[in-house]
Amino acid sequence: MKNRLKLLRVERNWTQEQLGQALGVSRQAVNALETEKHDPSLDLAYRISALFERPVEDVFENPHV
């Protein structure tokens, strides 16, 4: 799923490790999301959007539109 996760993370000067810790996932999971090798669960997508204080639609592209 296309997303803006890396851009949002870099804007805050966070490493993948730091973002993973904030979300309760591994650095490898963050990397898989950023490189679009893995889609987030609905719960994780909402946690990411809350962390960055943005609607889910601002972080993840809806593939059905």
UniProtKB/TrEMBL annotation:
For this UniProt record, the keywords arranged alphabetically read as follows:
DNA-binding
Source taxon at top rank: Bacteria
SUPFAM superfamilies the UniProt entry points to: lambda repressor-like DNA-binding domains
- Coiled-coil annotated spans: none
Keyword Kinase attributed: no
Domain HTH cro/C1-type intervals: 5-59
PROSITE patterns according to UniProt: HTH_CROC1
Give the matching Pfam families. Answer: HTH_3
| SMART domains noted in UniProt | HTH_XRE
Q: Does the keyword Oxidoreductase apply?
A: no
> What's the protein called, per UniProt?
Transcriptional regulator
